Structures are given as C-alpha cells and as structure tokens.
Amino acid sequence: xxxxxxxxxxxxxxxxxxxxxxxxxxxxxxxxxxxxxxxxxxxxxxxxxxxxxxxxxxxxxxxxxxxxxxxxxxxxxxxxxxxxxxxxxxxxxxxxxxxxxxxxxxxxxxxxxxxxxxxxxxxxxxxxxxxxxxxxxxxxxxxxxxxxxxxxxxxxxxxxxxxxxxxxxxxxxxxxxxxxxxxxxxxxxxxxxxxxxxxxxxxxxxxxxxxxxxxxxxxxxxxxxxxxxxxxxxxxxxxxxxxxxxxxxxxxxxxxxxxxxxxxxxxxxxxxxxxxxxxxxxxxxxxxxxxxxxxxxxxxxxxxxxxxxxxxxxxxxxxxxxxxxxxxxxxxxxxxxxxxxxxxxxxxxxxxxxxxxxxxxxxxxxxxxxxxxxxxxxxxxxxxxxxxxxxxxxxxxxxxxxxxxxxxxxxxxxxxxxxxxxxxxxxxxxxxxxxxxxxxxxxxxxxxxxxxxxxxxxxxxxxxxxxxxxxxxxxxxxxxxxxxxxxxxxxx
RNA sequence: GACCCCAUCGUCCAAUGGUAAGGACACCGGCCUUUCACGCCGGCAAUACGGGUUCGAUCCCCGUUGGGGUCGCCA
Length: 492
Prior knowledge:
By secondary structure, the protein is mainly α.
C-alpha cells in the first residue's frame, strides 16, 4: 500500500511553527516511502476559521519549503481538501451512525451542560463530562423534537465499560478505560461535524496510512478508533510526535515564545535553517551532523527513530544554526539577493521612507531613524516603558489588553491600529497619549520615533506583537493567575 | 482532581546489560585578530530517587518523584 501522510491545519490563527514541525515529519515520511503528502484544511469551526488564515498557512508552508501533492490549492483525486466543502460527506456518515444505533441526537442546551459540568467539578467527580441524558431517548421522540425545530447535536455512543487498546508507533500499546470518555459530539448544532468525526472520515476516504500529529491528540485516539470500528474501517498507523515546548517546559505558546512562522520570516531567519532546526527536535542524522537538508533527512529518516522527550524550542540554538547557513552557504552576492527579498526592496524601503521622510534633514538621517524597521527586537528598558503615576503592573495590563485587541485586527493598517488603541485608552479611561507612550518604547525602543501607528503598520503584526510581548517581559510579565483574571475582566 | 504520555549535562541530540557516559548550543578560559564576530584549542556540566532482575544496570521490571498533555457544540 502506498504511504500517504497528511497535514491537517485549522485556519484559525497565525501559521504555527508546530504546524511546520508536523508538516516536516509527515512530508519526509511520505517521501522516504515514495508516497504522497496531502494538505487538508480543517475549517469545521465556523466561528474562528478565516480565509486569511488559510492563505497565510499555505503561504508560510511554501516559504519554509514544504510542498504537498494534493491540497485545496492544487486539487487531487481525493478532494475536496477543505472540510467545509465536504459537509454532505460527513452528513451521510453521521446518518449512517445514527441508523446503526452508534450515535444519537442530543438536545441538551449549553447552559445545562455548563451547570452539569460545574456541579461535577464541585463534587470533585473523577469524570467531568456529559451525563448522557439524551442517550436513551427513543428515535421517534428525537425525530419529533427535530421536526419541531429544536436545536440539537449528534453524539457518539461510547461503551460504558471495558477498555480501549490501541497502538502508537512510538509508544507501543496504550490503554484507556471507556468509562473515562464522554459521549463525544460529532455533529454540532450548526450542522458542521466536529474534528473527531471529520478527521476519521477524511483520513479514511483519503487513504491516509500514517497519522503524524502532535501528542495532544493521544487522548482522543479511542474515540477515533471507535469510529473506525463503527464504520467497519481499518484504522491507520498512529504516530504522535512530542510537543514543542517553551523554555519553561510548557507547551509552546505565543505568550512565551514567538510561534508564528511569519515572525521568523520577518526576523530574518532562512527557511532552510528553521526547517533544519525543527528536524533536530526529536531526531538526529545517523552521523550526528546537525546541519542537514530535507533531502538529507529523506535519505536516512525513520519515524521510529524519533525520541519522545518533548524538546524545548531554543531560539538561541536556532539563531546559531541560522548563522551557519548564512555564512557557510551564502556568498556576499547571495546574501545581497536574500536581503533584497527580505526587506531591502523598493517596496519596503518606500513604505519605511514614507514614515520618516518629514524628519530627514540629511539623507543619512534615514539610517538613524529606520533601524527599528530592519531589526528583530529593539532595546527596551523599564524606564522606556514607564508611565507617569502608573504602577508597573498596570502598564503590563495595558500592554496585554492592547496585544489581545491587536490579535483580532483583520486589516493591519494605521487606521485600524489607531482605532484599536483608542478603544483600549477609553476602556482604561486614559488619554491616547498615555497609552501610546509605553508602546513607543516597546515597538521603537525609543521615546523619539516616527509616528506609532504608521510605524506599526509598516513593521507588520508579527514583529509588533513579539515586541509588545518582549516589553511585558521586561516589566516582569504576567503570572498565569493574573492573566486569567485579566482575561475574565476584559476579553470577550 | 481523574486519566494518558514522558524522564541522559541549563538546552538539543547520542551511547552500551560491562564506557573515562559522547557531540552541539549556551557559559567560562585561551589562541587568532585594529574591535567585534567567525574560526581554532581547552574547561564546566547529566544518567531524578528507591526497590528489584542480573556476576554486573543509565539501559529491563515495579514503585516514588518531577514535568507535560487531555478532560469544549476548539482544533
């Protein structure tokens, strides 16, 4: 059987280095076996999925050098490759499960589920899920309520006892009691399938042989193998990759580390270096060499050689590796080309110049004023971020809220940034000027700088957000507790 | 809290049922050099703990501890 692997990103945010990590191993494994690598967009979350995010993911994967044989942009024999275009397929399969008695309609409201869950947590019950209230409704009654227009979801019937045993290629046998698993929703009230249903149906229909994905999915495997059983299908090989981590060992997150591929691109990393670095997370060349290409990898890669300790994503070592690529593989003329591609092109220079033009007295002033547009980070001190009559902790809150608001901006431009900042200022009952003062420090690394909103527009969202996060860390950062409190207070 | 996964220098990755436990990043020293960087040489630094199995365990088994993940009509 031909080896087929897939990457199944969900277009709900920035292209993540973890996605690239999984893409790399999936791609390489397919190519080791002369097989195919498929890109499938998992946009079953109507609320959060955006076309912009999908486009950004494809674009950044291309930049880093991952290609796919089938996907939403190139098509292929197993399409469509976007889950929102496969709704009728899921519907058919969901109906099949209901008919066979493996799934049922559930009319419980979110409010009821919340209450049930809260109560279970208060009671310190070991299982905190759904109480299966609708599991034994008669099909007739269910049909009646559906006909009456009552909203409902479809849940799968998980066995009430016994245990599920499955195999992970890297970890061997894993067992889990069925009793510890909820009756998982497989179709939401909006008629869209959930991940669990869609992923199983698609992986089967697309003849995926190896599921290579992050370790956070291990606990869902029982639900998936049960679905395979319900449908009478053969499950694929499961291979759960270790999770990339922050230096503090938690799962890699943008709050503690830049996670957007676009950040690394804007900060001037070479795609081949980033990919190489990801390749040494959990894997190594047989001869121990640390600099290797995807082609090198394909020559000696075996999935079962992956080590399981979740690696820390160490930006210092990535920087070193990137440096090796720059100085070992590039002539000055190559670098000149790359710099032009990166930022020293007429377009970017024009945009930067527009921001500083009115301040120039000599052409050479340009270099002085624009350094921040060609840097990764800027030098920030507490003093630069200080606001008169304001506690440090308040400044951090201010920055955090700004960050959250900025993350939601769709069209990153001066006007939208300006209106966001005005919003934040109003929320805190501050003059805009007061809010922008620490932002000048965070974004520009100086109190003297070109106009903030325009600068931020030119700099781009990835660099701006990374700089704001860095500034918050200079001030001591936010504890998880405080963050949650803040989130409750302000975040919608 | 329940369940699942994991455990070699600070970090990444090696190694073997018998080793002086190896390489890389970082750090420290030295050489090179107009400075810095690169390069070169050297140094610091790890088998989490407790029980087994064994002539012998870092490696195999069990427990403890520690870390991570999952417990959504998110993926």
